[in-house]
Specification:
InterPro entries: His_Pase_superF_clade-1 (IPR013078), His_PPase_superfam (IPR029033). By secondary structure, the chain is of the alpha/beta class. The chain is built from 5 helices and 6 strands, in the order E-H-E-H-E-H-E-H-H-E-E.
Length: 164
């Protein structure tokens, strides 16, 4: 699949942290993080902040587990972080994620979303072989892929993968 145009030159793809199972009558959309998820979200957010990772804009799914993961990033990266919540990230295709990324006019963007779409978006950006080398067991909850646009190869490169 073709690489997205380098409007942002850095992309952060963050899969929400581990969520609790749905309670009877509870919608999937409303599932909160479980205790491990809260801990993992804080760990990954702190590790990313310690490495100097800070997007110019963070775009999150409106699902509760994504909003709670976003709150951990917000705490770690500062209150001035520009956060936007977008309904379209819930139950989206990789094309929707790529369109949202492509529509940004900033240098760096973070998406906080869901699997399998987060993993499929990463694969669309770096290719199948690079995906398998980087995360052979799949994109874990609270996993953060950091990609930079490489002008020499005119493509995206995974430069880091942060997880608990």
């Amino acid at each position: 699949m073709a690489a997205t145009l380098p409007s942002p030159s850095r992309i952060y793809l963050l899969r929400h942290a581990e969520a609790a199972w749905a309670q009877p009558g509870e919608r999937d959309f409303d599932r909160p993080l479980n205790e491990k998820g809260y801990d993992d979200a804080e760990i990954v957010a702190d590790r990313a902040a310690d490495k100097g990772y800070r997007p110019e804009v963070l775009i999150s799914s409106t699902a509760r587990r994504c909003r709670e993961t976003t709150q951990a990033v917000h705490r770690a990266m500062g209150l001035s972080l520009d956060i936007r919540y977008v309904d379209q990230l819930y139950n989206a295709t990789p094309e929707v994620y790529l369109d949202i990324i492509d529509s940004q006019t900033v240098g760096s963007v973070m998406l906080v979303g869901h699997n399998p779409t987060t993993e499929q978006t990463l694969e669309a950006l770096i290719g199948h072989d690079a995906l398998l080398r980087a995360i052979p067991d799949g994109f874990p909850t609270a996993g953060l892929a950091v990609l930079d646009f490489d002008h020499a190869s005119a493509g995206w490169k995974l430069i880091d993968f942060v997880h608990d």
